[in-house]
Amino acid sequence: MPKPTIEQEIKLTLDYDISPADTLCAAKCDWIYPWMLEHCPAAWQKTGKVEVTVVLIDMGGVWETAEALPAISELGLVAPADNCALWTLSAKYSDLQREIVVVDPGTVWTGERGHPCMAFLRGGHGDRSADLGGGVARGWDRSVRVLALKNMM
Fold first, then answer.
1. In angstroms, what is the C-alpha Rg of the chain?
2. pLDDT tens profile 79-93
């Protein structure tokens, strides 16, 4: 198993009074997988604004999805309960998204074809995108960062 380390910590305010679809649109990605917008929940399970510290974890090598949640716990962090942190991170730190791929292992979607998927952000020099990946059952390479949370208030 790779040795996970905390790479970066970012303070964010998550606004649960904005709908999931509107939060995703506010990320202002150049491309958003249209099926995600159509299948977002109608509302978050929380309301109000929540201060969090988003943590990006470098898993230290090629890693399997099943290794992400235990690594989050071992680092004293929690997995996000929804994609609000991921999409808010994209909106507030768009340049970061151009440098690395960030996956949210705490939220598993049932994808368009009925298979489990996780939301992730990726980008390049010219664009940014929000997508779902079938990486629930497979591994990820070292370029992908795992999103976790600490200091939830």
1. 14
2. 999 999 999 999 999
pTM (2 decimals)? 0.91
What's CA 36's distance to the chain center, in Å? 14
Burial call 111-137: b when 16+ CB within 10 Å, e when fewer: beeeeebbbbbbbeeeebbbbbbebbe
CATH no., domain 5-150: 3.10.100
The answer to which of 6-10, 48-52, 63-67, 75-79 has the lowest mean pLDDT is 63-67
Q: pLDDT, tens digit, for every residue of 131-149?
A: 988 777 677 888 899 999 9
CB atoms near residue 76 (< 10 Å): 10
Closest by CA to 150, choosing from 19, 8, 26, 32, is 8
Query: DSSP secondary-structure letter at 34?
Result: H
Q: Report d(CA 70, CA 114) in Å as an integer.
A: 25
Q: Which of 141, 122, 144 is nearest to 131 (CA)?
A: 122
